[in-house]
Automatic annotation (TrEMBL):
Record domain DYW: where: 702-794
Source organism of the structure: Phoenix dactylifera
InterPro entries the UniProt entry points to: DYW_dom, E2_motif, E_motif, PPR_At4g14850-like_plant, PPR_rpt, TPR-like_helical_dom_sf
PPR repeat intervals: 183-217, 284-318, 385-419, 455-485, 486-520
UniProt-recorded name of the protein: Pentatricopeptide repeat-containing protein At4g30700-like
PANTHER family reported in the protein's UniProt record: PENTATRICOPEPTIDE REPEAT-CONTAINING PROTEIN
GO MF annotation list: RNA binding; zinc ion binding
Record keyword Repeat present: yes
PROSITE patterns given in the database record: PPR
An annotated GO BP: gene expression
Family, per entry: Belongs to the PPR family. PCMP-H subfamily.
Alphabetized SUPFAM superfamilies for the sequence: TPR-like
Signal sequence, renumbered to the chain: none
Amino acid sequence: MLWRSPSYLSSAATSLCLRRRSFYLDLISGASTLRHLDQILAHAILSGRHPDLVTTTKLLHRLADLGSPPTHLLRLFSSVPRPDLFLLNVLLRSLPPSSALLFLSSLRRAHPHLRPDSFTYAFAASATASLLSPAPGRALHARVIIDGFATDPFVGSALTDFYLNFSQVSAAEKVFDGVPDPDTVLWNTLISGLVQNCAFLRSLRVFKQMVMTGARFDSTTLAVVLPAAAELQELIVGMTVHCLGMKSGLAFHSHVVTGFISLYSKCGEIPAAKFLFEQIDEPDLIACNAMISGYSSNGLVGSSVDVFRELLAFRGRPNSSTMVGLIPVSSPFEHESLSRSIHSFAIKSGLYLNSPVSTAFTTVYCRLNDMEAARKVFDAMPEKSMASWNAMISGYAQNGLTEMAISLFREMQDLNVRPNQITVTSTLSACAQLGALTLGKWVHQIITQEDLELNVYVLTALIDMYAKCGSIMEARRIFDGMVEKNVVSWNAMILGYGLHGQGLEALKLFKEMLNARIAPTGVTFLSVLYACSHGGLVEEGRAAFWSMTCDHGIKPGPEHYACMVDLLGRAGQLKEALEFIETVPESAGPGVWGALLGACMKHKETSLARLASEKLFELEPENTSYYVLLSNIYSANRNYPEAAMVRQQDAKSRKLPKTPGCTLIEIRDEVHIFTSGDRSHPQSVLIYSMLDKLTGKMVEAGYRAETDVALYDVEEEEKEHMVKVHSEKLAIVFGLISTEPGSEIRIIKNLRVCLDCHAATKFISRITQRLIIVRDATRFHHFKDGACSCGDFW
DNA sequence: GTAGGGTTAG
């Protein structure tokens, strides 16, 4: 270096040197502080040399690098009598995004001789990518098109990046398509941005297209496409990329190797990941993190800790990602104490309580069903990431706290935090559990508005939501539109038909699935059995059960046995059901006996009911719902002393209050909830007078209230009321008076619909000529013209 | 102008 101290500048020799441009340039690039630069500039001017365009450009560059405020840069620029395009571009690149764009907008007035080129627009476009609003970027895009730069790969890349930063995937693709000869960087920008927007399928498609068109790919390309393959667990695609990498020699680039380690770990190929990791001479922090998380997520917590120790011993400090990878999210129960101790370590160190670490802990606590701890971690996060919102929402949905999940999603919308596929998938699951069709439709609308990629997860969640919220046709429409279906999608659709009592449709779809060579899983058979059971298809169900073990080698679990007992029991084959239980290899669980008890209920089989109840009391002494069932069976047979005794036992054992039966109906986006005998509704006078009129007409048509008949597992409080004012009847009547004649009525009951309401609804559907869809605790009933879709197999 | 690891889902 020419000089070390500012005092050196005062020497005459330096003055002479400064007259020569190259020395001057060297001095500028060597300056290490703003003060140095000031002194150089002052000296130059004193020595009679005014900086020319080249030196000013250099100076501007250096000033920006050393953190000079934007006002200084602008002042320097305006001191130049006739700035050229190069200087303008350097200025634009050096200014903070908003000042750069502001400056550009005044350019035409201030410097009419300067015609922006592709660099100008590229820098400007990349400035728009980091703003809070997309509006300036869109305006710039318009100018780019007018000025004819939309076909330039440099500009296109910056614009593509801009749109992807604002999650406008389609717009980004449009920009890309407008560039006839995309270069490697432009391809990479699109692929990487798609991955960041969770559009993994699209990114793989673009990569394929890139390779097919013969475009040159580089290590960045491979590094950005690998996470997409890993995320989708597309091992074959990943291995193809590996082959491409080997052939081109790019597979040994450190970023790419890390990508492979992560890919193989995520696909469960730990030996391959381990092999690659051990091939690296000196793995860096990121490679170690990939391996740590790979082991941990595959349940190999010991090996994960080994690599962590190695990292501490030889490669220095771990970072927050190391911690995230180390937490055994995949098996929290097994390593609960380890997770909690990592958490307290993280809190103590303070350094690690950033968003990804907190998100991992949120997840762990959700999995441990410790929702309060999870929420505490979530609330303590100053900056919430997409993943942290998703972790909390899915945690609520999976723990059945559906309202919490939905209200958190609402909060996100209110805060203008844009959801991604995972957010909507979790929220849809909550809507499905709740049976909230209007909410579900709203989420569907948001998916469309946000242009979220419709991947298998999202579409399957939509099928599930529509099916569980009563729109089986809409579910089927989405199912048919799916290009790529997997087992879960088929399962969701089959289960949907089962819920709606369309057993034959379910079986037809199951056959189609087998023809399409999709290997069924235990869940598939559970859905098929369920559909048979709710459609009264006993023989078909039996055949499916045997085919499961014989043809597909799937060992039936307790839930399959329970479903079979339910199937036989509903159809009145109680003896066969009991015989079937005796074939259960291990002792039958509560599910199996519960199913038998439910069947006894329907067929008023007191002695068998007693047997089943005794088994249940033995297996689950704390579960109170069986007492209700048994007592109802006795009262159905008019054996009131026994009924009273059971009820007394029940009262003794009961600790928690019962959930009262209630029915929900949505009218024009508003939710109305009715309980039995409810008079709290503002229109309750009208509702009751309508109900009276309707009951009159029903009686005329032959309806008799079945007050002394056993009510399913309805609760005591509800039973004490006249069945006439059951919550479902109130909700139906409210539906009748609040909607157009002829339109369908949908209600949701939290318990199983009672026999009397079931019969009454049939009459109502005929008298009013309405389709009434009732979702109860176990299935859907479509009442139409005096009949129910369940064919009374409910 | 693009760049590897970590969190979230049916």
